[in-house]
């Protein structure tokens, strides 16, 4: 099977399952819908080394929240997605009221599709300085110590992001890291409509074939929960899907016994994808596509994620709506 770039465990599982024709050994899947079926939640749990090897993703929990309303600017749906995100995030983190949290906004703030992480950081309720300088203001509040950073990317700083985070961890000793990043999808309909939460950490750039050193418990020393949203899709995938659709329509209008049908049936997926790469890659290399209104999308999704994080980390925020949209 040819490699298709995607950061979503849900999509990797869909591709592998299609090839297997059955559920994958060592992988558990649970699906449900909420709020009049406007929000779909899919939990993929990799619980064995075999499942890990097949999906090529670390053992752990991957939760995907899908809602078309995220793309359509349905603010009622966006608010509900924030609450679902908060509940699912709470189910993955193991922190006490006295725990401290470091929020990391991954990505390049100069490139709009990659600026989700920094945007979220700008909207998270930051409190660590209050605990240090005005503790009397927060001592009776049900909020946790939270700090945040947008470390930039290697091309700007000359430093691996994981090295920056490791240095911060050694200095401030957080109990948990929440990392936010833009992802790559293999389906157009999931661009800006899906949010993935994973308790396995993150490898920045993996979805676009530009892998950096991972940000995981093993590399930075504390648990890492990653939140990501697909913002780009490989142009070769779009072309491949279009040709796929064309071939299926031609087959439906052609006699099964005809030479044309037999020819269409005999074209392997990998050969077709390689032909597409021969057209695109010599001129553009890895070409990724993003929606034209990506600036609006990033602004809206960053608010949804920041609200979800605020509610999950700070019990008082979840109970008192006036604390929401603080930034």
Automatic annotation (TrEMBL):
InterPro entries: Pept_HybD-like_dom_sf (IPR023430), Peptidase_A25 (IPR005080). It comes from Caldicellulosiruptor owensensis (strain ATCC 700167 / DSM 13100 / OL). Its EC number is 3.4.24.78. Transmembrane segments: none annotated. This is Spore protease. Signal peptide: none annotated. Keywords: Hydrolase, Protease, Zymogen. It holds the Pfam family Peptidase_A25. One of its GO terms (biological process) is proteolysis. One of its GO terms (molecular function) is peptidase activity.
